[in-house]
Amino acid sequence: MRISKKSILFVLILMGLFSCKSDYQKMKEEAEASGVVAEDLFLGIRFGMVRREFFETCAEHNKNGVLINGPHHLQVLYHPEMPSGKKVDMFFYPDFEEDRLFFMPIEFIYTDWFPTNEEYTKDKLLADVVGLFENWYGPGFREITNQDKTIRAMVKIDGNRLIRIFIKDIKTVRAEILDLRVKDITELNKPSNEASQ
Fold this sequence. Notes:
The chain is α+β, with helices and mostly antiparallel strands. It has one domain (21-196). The chain is built from 4 helices and 11 strands; from the N terminus they run ααββαβββββαββββ. The strands form 2 sheets. Strands 3, 4, 5, 6, 7, 8, 9, 10 and 11 form a 9-stranded antiparallel sheet that branches. A two-stranded antiparallel sheet has the order 1-2. The longest helix is centred in the middle third of the chain and has 16 residues, at 122-137. The termini are far apart. 27% of the residues are buried.
């Protein structure tokens, strides 16, 4: 039986297409293989906390003036020290699965943001948030894009802890921290997870 060069080339191309994995999938597999379990988030908040413990932790920080109730759909407001020294509002409020914290959406907005102020652009805010998270979680954030490169996110995975940072709108940067032991990013809301696929 004689096999043509075109047939061999076609088979090799098919094998290449099916063996390709997204950058996100490669990062996730490497992180899972590491065996690392990362539960710490920030301010004593961690994956697996029951709802009551989360509220008690926030109440204690509230008493000390660290956290307050914010005027945002993510109800808790914090003012972290940013690498740039600029003031920022950090709003957060977690999601729980079976009464345990597994997902932390966070939104950052420069307090002095104004549409024409070049010092407070969304791109500068993104760099500032990545810098803050590198201080908290270490270096290693990589840019991941969707297939047509219209959506990009800075992503880091430490064992089970996935961190994704992206520009949400003209003034907001969103960060999402997910416990991959509970859900994959593809199981969360579709509009904001396209950059991980």
